[in-house]
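Intended use. Records like the one below are meant for learning the mapping from a protein sequence to its folded structure. Do not use them to infer anything beyond what is encoded.
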Amino acid sequence: MIRALTVALLLAAPAAAQQTRTAPHNLYSSTRNQADLATMRRLLACGIQVAAEDSNFYEGLAPDFYVVISDPLPSREAAEAQLARARQCGVDGQTRMARRRIAAH
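Structure written out for the chain above:
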């Protein structure tokens, strides 16, 4: 029982650590009144995982915007590679260091 609990804690540690640190995220759109669902759909169709969310959920982003933002990426190099793929799909973006304040649903 203790061994199983230890293994479970070790497996969960990287996920827990990822939520507590700042990581590169690609920001593809920010709007005031409503989320840019067209940009989100275009990126998803290209195989790029993004979400349309409230910027207030993130430390490191300006407040009070709806953003189309990537999942946290492991490095700036990975972020740059994703931006290059997005450009091939007709979407420009920028990398921001951010941390999610509120857990995803």
